[in-house]
Amino acid sequence: MKQISSVNNKLVKELEKLNKKKYREETGLYLIEGFHLFEETLKANRKFIYLLGTDEALNKAEEAGVSLDAKNVILINKAIARHLSSTKNSQEIFAVLKIAQPKDFSFNYGKWVLLDNLADPGNVGTIIRTADAAGFNGVVLSPESVDLYNPKTQRAMQGSQFHIDIIIKDLTDVITQLEASDIPVYASMLDKTAKKLPDFEKVAQLGLVIGNEAHGVSDFIANLSDTKLYIPIFGQAESLNAAVAAGIMIYHFA
After folding, report:
1. What digits encode the pLDDT tens for the residues 54-68?
2. Which of 100, 187, 211, 216 has the highest CB neighbour count under 10 A?
3. Source organism's superkingdom (predicted)?
């Protein structure tokens, strides 16, 4: 097992850069942190490029079935763990994975959540986790949405990225494919023509569009959708958090 003891090590410096979107895009790699996410990679049979951890952390990884004799397993100290961590209290274990986005994907079946330019990583991760819990087939992020591989998004997903399909794709193409397969597309938005969520019956397949936290679903995407819907508000709150609203709608159609 290889050992690194300096934060100035070349590999450590390279991995530190993976906390930035630009470098993730350049390398095609991303970093996950923490035991739960690491265990989810094992359950999903995802191969890691590197596994780094302190002595205590790697001992736990060995108990989970990882061979510490592997060349890509690296022992680090607590100083390096703090250096690589994107959290205040690091669990001192990190894995480097390849970004896996399919070049072609068919949207001719299933239940999908379509995220139109969402900006908050916590909201995106929570929506993905909720879609997973509700048994949806997957989530599509518009290219302008927050980066799927952002550390905050990763933490909010809690491993759901390994359970369902998560695609980064232009929503115009996705909606076109869904409607070509007679799958209805509902856009969530406050609009005079929108219908109340309780008025909708469950359907076997659908695309559910969730809009940007500040601006909602774009007019272009809304006009491509079959129907607009909204969640009635009975109190004095002006609106719902995007992830909360998405969760209510996802489970309505689950």
Report:
1. 999 999 999 999 999
2. 187
3. Bacteria
Question: Which residues are CB-contacts of 119 (< 8 A; sequence separation ≥ 6)?
Answer: 145, 146, 212, 213, 214
State whether residue 163 is helix, strand or coil: coil
Rounded Cα distance between 115 and 147, Å, is: 12
Express each pLDDT in 167-217 by its tens digit.
Answer: 999 999 999 999 999 999 999 998 889 999 999 999 999 999 999 999 999
Based on the structure, what is the number of domains in the chain?
A: 2
| 165 lies in some domain | yes
Q: Which two tokens stand for residue 236?
A: 């004095």
- Beta carbons of 112 and 178 less than 8 angstroms apart: yes
CA distance 139 to 126: 11
Q: What's the DSSP call for residue 169?
A: -
C-alpha torsion angle, residues 33, 24, 42, 168 (rounded to 10): 120
Strand (E) or helix (H) holding 152:
helix 151-157
Q: Are residues 79 and 25 in the same domain?
A: yes
- pTM for the whole thing? 0.94
| 106 found inside a domain | no
Which among 48, 56, 225, 210 is positioned nearest to 119, based on CA atoms? 210
Of 31, 96, 93, which Cα lies nearest the Cα of 63? Answer: 93
- Count of residues in the chain: 254
SS3 112: strand
Both 140 and 91 in a single domain? no
Please, are residues 206 and 184 in contact by the beta-carbon 8 Å criterion?
yes
